[in-house]
Specification:
alpha+beta; CBS-domain; CBS_dom; CBS domain; CBS domain-containing protein
Amino acid sequence: MHATTHSQTPDTNLKHETATVRKILDKKGSDVHALRPQNTLHEAVVMLRDKKIGAVVVKDADGRLQGILSERDIVRRLAETPGQTLPQKVEDIMTKTVEVCHPDDALITVLRKMTDGRFRHMPVVEDDALAGIITIGDVVNYRLTELEYEALQLKQLIVG
């Protein structure tokens, strides 16, 4: 009789860590594109286009978070002030009360906040400093990859 080995067990295959914001930032990095409140919407639009991003954070001279400006904010203002929008200041239309998350927050909690608040970008703050920004797309992509991995683990558990 020969000894059998088990490379997989229910514990190793089904062990699950809580997915956190930090896991996304570890892959994505902490680069954050920012403007100052006094910048114009034209400058914001150029940055959004050139960086291929959907929102930009707004920081003061000391680097403190002052707000966030999204494509949606700009589109709303374009509809309200046609032909007069681009010279306006970022501070005039940015969202000043910004929902933030922390690196150790669970992704499911962050996704729920984004869905309930109907926004797609969330700055990440650690020790009162901006540590990055995550998007709803980042969270969904992370979760899809996680689901694919879980499906593979279950398949291996069943097949052996």
